[in-house]
C-alpha cells in the first residue's frame, strides 16, 4: 500500500504542490528518499527516524521508500520532515491515511519530536488554499500561515500532538492570524534643515515612485534625507502587504506571524555580495531587491558597490522582476521598488571645496561617478546635487514641514494616478507609464512642448530622457492637483534631469 501526504517545494514565491508517497515493501530493512531531494531533505530520514523513536514508535522491519513527486522538481529545505513523517505514519497505520490526504504539511523535526519553525509558511498556506487542503505546520509558523484566511491552519508544537490531532484523541483548534503591524515611528522630514530642493524631490519620487539619485559632499545630509522616505509613503495596501510578506516569509523575516503594512526600506551595505542583493546562493533565497518589493531600496555610496552588482541591477529595475539561477532551474522573484541612491562627488568627497579637495581633483570626480554606467544612471528619473549645509543653517530651529503633511500630498497624487490608470493592466503609478499611454496622459501644453523641444536641442536630451522628463512632469502636475501637464511642471521636471553630472 502507498500512503500519501502533501507538501510544497518553493520556486521563488511560488509554492509548488509536492506529493509525498510512502511505500513499505518486504526486503532488507532500509529507509530511502527519492525524487531530487537536496541534502537537507535526505537528512530528513535521520530526523524522522529519531523523532519516531522518541515517541516509542518502531519502524517496521521492511524497506521504506519515500518518493517526492513530481520527481523532476528539485526539493530543498528541511520542511519536508513533517510530511515525510506523516506519510510514514499513515503507511504503518498509526494515523488514518484518509485523514492526511486532505492536508498539506510543512515543518522540520528535531530529534525529540518537537516541530521547528521553517521559512515559507505564508506561500505554503496559499498553495494549501489553492488545492483546498488544510495546512499543518509548527506552532511558531501558525500565525503567519493563518494570514491567508482561506486555508485552515493547524499549528502544532510536536509530532505527538499532530498524531493526536489526526487520530482524534485531542484535536487542535485552527491557528489565528498574527497582528497587522504598522511601524509609524518614522524619522521625520522636519529634522532636515534647509535642503528644500532635496525634500521636494523626495516628495515627487514618493508620489510617482520615481528612482532618485543624490550627489553631494559628505555630511550634506543625503543619507539622513533618504532614511525619511518611509515617513512620506502611504502604507501598503492589503494585497501589497501579502505580496511583500510572501517574500519576507521565504527569507524568514516575519516576526511572530505579524504582517507589516509599512513599506519596506532596505539599505544594504556596499560590500554586500551579489547573492545578498539580487538573490541566490543556497536555496535561491530572495535578495535585497526583492525584500524591497513595494518599498524602497536605498543604495548609499552607490559608486562603491561592485560593478557587476550595479550592472545586474539594470534589468530588475526595468522589469520589476529578478531571475535567480540555481542548480538546475531559474526562480523568479518580484522586485518593484523605488531606488534611492546617494553618492559623494568623488572618493574623498571634497571635490567642490577647493581648500579640501585632494590632489587628483577634478579628474577623480569623473573617475568616481564614472563607475555608475550611463544606462544605470539613466534609470534615475530624478537627479539632484545636494549642497553642503552651512553651520548657520544647522543652528536654526527646525522649520521644515513635517512628514505627515507631505505624506498627505503624496497620498492625493497617488489617488489621482490610481484613478487615471484604473483600467490599465499592471500600471498604477506614473513611473511605469510608457509609450502611447505616457504620450496621452502627459502631453504638455504648447508652451511646455516648446520648452521641452528647446531643452532637447540645447542639452541633447535622448528619447529616453525625454520620456523620463514627461513622467516626472506628470507627477508634478498630479501633486499640484492639475489635470494637464503645463510648462512650469515641465520646467521643474527638466531641472532634475540636467545636472552638472551628466546630461542626456
Ligand atoms: N540638512 C541637515 N539638517 C540637519 N542635520 C543635518 C543636515 N545635514 C547633515 N546633518 C547632520 O549631519 C549628519 C551627517 O549627514 P549624512 O546624512 O550622513 O550626510 P551624507 O550622507 O550626505 O554624507 C546627519 O546625521 C545630521 O546629524
Ligand atoms: Mg551618507
UniProtKB/TrEMBL annotation:
SMART domains, A to Z: AAA (SM00382)
Residue ranges of every copy of the AAA+ ATPase domain listed in the record: 208-390
InterPro entries, sorted: AAA+_ATPase, CHLI-like, Mg_chelat-rel, Mg_chelat-rel_C, Mg_chelatse_chII-like_cat_dom
Family: Belongs to the Mg-chelatase subunits D/I family. ComM subfamily.
Matching PANTHER family: COMPETENCE PROTEIN COMM (PTHR32039:SF7), MAGNESIUM-CHELATASE SUBUNIT CHLI (PTHR32039)
Name of the molecule in the record: YifB family Mg chelatase-like AAA ATPase
Amino acid at each position: 500500500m502507498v500512503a500519501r501526504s502533501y507538501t510544497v517545494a518553493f520556486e521563488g514565491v511560488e509554492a509548488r504542490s509536492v506529493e509525498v508517497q510512502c511505500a513499505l515493501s518486504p526486503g532488507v530493512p532500509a529507509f530511502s528518499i527519492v525524487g531530487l531531494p537536496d541534502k537537507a531533505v535526505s537528512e530528513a530520514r535521520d530526523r524522522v527516524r529519531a523523532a519516531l523513536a522518541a515517541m516509542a514508535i518502531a519502524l517496521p522491519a521492511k524497506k521504506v521508500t519515500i518518493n517526492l513527486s513530481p520527481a523532476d522538481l528539485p526539493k530543498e529545505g528541511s520542511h519536508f520532515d513533517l510530511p515525510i513523517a506523516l506519510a510514514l505514519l499513515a503507511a504503518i497505520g498509526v494515523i488514518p491515511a484518509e485523514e492526511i490526504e486532505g492536508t498539506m504539511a510543512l515543518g522540520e523535526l528535531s530529534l525529540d519530536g518537537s516541530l521547528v519553525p521553517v521559512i515559507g509558511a505564508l506561500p505554503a498556506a496559499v498553495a494549501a488554499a489553492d488545492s483546498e487542503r488544510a495546512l499543518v505546520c509548527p506552532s511558531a509558523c501558525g500565525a503567519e500561515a493563518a494570514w491567508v484566511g482561506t486555508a485552515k491552519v493547524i499549528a502544532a508544537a510536536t509530532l505527538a500532538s499532530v498524531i493526536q490531532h489526526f487520530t482524534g484523541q485531542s484535536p487542535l483548534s485552527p491557528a489565528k492570524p498574527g497582528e497587522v503591524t504598522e511601524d509609524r515611528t518614522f524619522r521625520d522630514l522636519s529634522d532636515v534643515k534647509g535642503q528644500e530642493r532635496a525634500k521636494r524631490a523626495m516628495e515627487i519620487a514618493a508620489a510617482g515612485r520615481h528612482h532618485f539619485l543624490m550627489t553631494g559632499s559628505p555630511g550634506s545630509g543625503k543619507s539622513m534625507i533618504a532614511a525619511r522616505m518611509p515617513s512620506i509613503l502611504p502604507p501598503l495596501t492589503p494585497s501589497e502587504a501579502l505580496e511583500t510578506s510572501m517574500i519576507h516569509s521565504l527569507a524568514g523575516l516575519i516576526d511572530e506571524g505579524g504582517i507589516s503594512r509599512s513599506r519596506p526600506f532596505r539599505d544594504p551595505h556596499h560590500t554586500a555580495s551579489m547573492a545578498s542583493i539580487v538573490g541566490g546562493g543556497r536555496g535561491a533565497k530572495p535578495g535585497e531587491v526583492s525584500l524591497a518589493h513595494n518599498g524602497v531600496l536605498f543604495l548609499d555610496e552607490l559608486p562603491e558597490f561592485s560593478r557587476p552588482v550595479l550592472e545586474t541591477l539594470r534589468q530588475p529595475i526595468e522589469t520589476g522582476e529578478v531571475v535567480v539561477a540555481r542548480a538546475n532551474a531559474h526562480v523568479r522573484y518580484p522586485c518593484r521598488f523605488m531606488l534611492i541612491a546617494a553618492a559623494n562627488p568623488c572618493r574623498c568627497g571634497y571635490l567642490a571645496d577647493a581648500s579640501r579637495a585632494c590632489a587628483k581633483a577634478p579628474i577623480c570626480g569623473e573617475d568616481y561617478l564614472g563607475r555608475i554606467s550611463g544606462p544605470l544612471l539613466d534609470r534615475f528619473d530624478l537627479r539632484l546635487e545636494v549642497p553642503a549645509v552651512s553651520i548657520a543653517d544647522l543652528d536654526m530651529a527646525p522649520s521644515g514641514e513635517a512628514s505627515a503633511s507631505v505624506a498627505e500630498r503624496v497620498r492625493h497624487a497617488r489617488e489621482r494616478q490610481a484613478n487615471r490608470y484604473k483600467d490599465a493592466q499592471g500600471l498604477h503609478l506614473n513611473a511605469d507609464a510608457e509609450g502611447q499611454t505616457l504620450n496621452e496622459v502627459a502631453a504638455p501644453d504648447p508652451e511646455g512642448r516648446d520648452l521641452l523641444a528647446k531643452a532637447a536641442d540645447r542639452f541633447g536630451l535622448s528619447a529616453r530622457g525625454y520620456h523620463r522628463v514627461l513622467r516626472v512632469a506628470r507627477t508634478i502636475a498630479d501633486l499640484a492637483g492639475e489635470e494637464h501637464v503645463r510648462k512650469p511642471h515641465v520646467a521643474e521636471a527638466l531641472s532634475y534631469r540636467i545636472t552638472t553630472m551628466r546630461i542626456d
